[in-house]
Amino acid sequence: MSKKLIKPFSPTPNHLRNYKLSFFDQIAEKTHIPFVLFYPNNPINNSSIIDYMVQQLEESLSRILTHVYPAAGRFNENKCSIICQDQGVQLIKAKVNCRMDDFLQKARTNFDLALNFWPHGIKDVDATSLFTMPLMVVQITIFQCGGIALSMSIAHPAMDGWTIFTFIYEWSKVCKLGIRAEKINSFMSFDLANMFGPRDITAIFEASAIYAGKRTDTKLVAKKFVMDEASISKLRDKLTNCNNSRALCFKPSRVEIITAILWRAQLRASQAITGKIKPSLMTFPLNLRGKLKYREETNPFGNFIIEVPIAYEPKGTNMELQDFILLIRETVQKTVDYCGEASADDVVAMVANLYNKNYGGREWGTSDDIEEFTCSSLCSFHMQEADFGWGNPNLMHFGSRLNQVFWLYSTQCGNSIVVQMDLKENYMDFIEHDQDFLAFTKF
């Protein structure tokens, strides 16, 4: 194993060396978020060629960092800005005494094996080291057969999912096509703090309202399911059939339908284990890029999401999918509509009100008798198209396994949706045998 710092190809100009963090960076979860992409399609097991591929990766990383310069910086001591003095992204190179095919075969039944390919040391990051270490850590692990695992971990107070997956996609193009630094087109802006500058968080948020997910000491396990497009389409037709007295008056999206299926399955598991249907609070990260009409820049670097809380209160014993879909659509759309017309100060006030009521309030935020989880849709991102010259990734793994999360992303063909579930072990055992849920999956 070896480590080195990769710095931007061109020095960051003096006037850009202090990048101000925004209000949305302030309220982001204080953690490093890792993920891993596995590339099994490299048939070449020649050390000199593999060394050349790694060199291409390093050089292209340096070139792309010129256009995403805050990623190579460090947090200022006051945690309100990033000092952009080209300190560098940490790159780790490692080898594993295993063939990719053997790993993929074992990962089919034990998805947790992917955790072994997190960037080295990320598991030990705490709230103190988070603000002193590199904002981005990259590890490339070479298998015996020449297959490659590319893992990254990013400081969430500096970047959200859109930022890092857009970075990955653009980096892969630069690497594969050998694009020179001066020929890379701008794909992000760096002025979000001009509109959403830092606020006095203690003055507008209750102490427990900055939502970081309800972390659990209970063991969480991960499984991967593929939601079958044909089954989802049939269900959509059924849900919108005008002959159905409870038919939806709109055509729900794939994400809305699958999120509703997952939500109901999680509550059915909870009911089987606890003997009752509990109230539930789902967090739905909403990307605000392109949704605020008064902003000219739609693709800012950093965090630009609202963790939309969607609260479900059971009524009787019925858990109809229509009810979940309608609740998701109305809650998210209400947030989008408000943000589309509101001023920056009004958006901040709305976020504070949402978080205080749902994450900090007694009714929802502090009750142990509520089922909490996050559903994060990555379907609009391009990580499955991140081809560095080694083909597309065959397997992906997300998150730090600290709270219950459903990760949704599109398959390579784009028709079906893959779900990575991070759940309590007893909940997962139930869902794996829930025929109502399994009817919408394929293997």
Account of the 3D structure:
The chain is of the alpha+beta class and 443 residues long. The protein has 2 domains: 2-203, Chloramphenicol acetyltransferase-like domain (Chloramphenicol Acetyltransferase, 2-Layer Sandwich), CATH 3.30.559.10; 207-442, 2-Layer Sandwich (Chloramphenicol Acetyltransferase), CATH 3.30.559. It contains 12 helices and 16 strands. The strands form 3 sheets. Strands 11-10-12-14-15-9-16 form a 7-stranded mixed sheet. A 6-stranded mixed sheet has the order 1-6-7-8-3-13, covered by helices on one side. Strands 2-5-4 form a 3-stranded antiparallel sheet, with no helix packed on it. Strand 4 and strand 5 form a beta hairpin. Helix 2 crosses helix 4. The longest helix has 21 residues, at 254-274. The mean pLDDT is 91. It holds the Pfam family Transferase. One of its GO terms (molecular function) is acyltransferase activity. Keywords: Acyltransferase, Transferase.
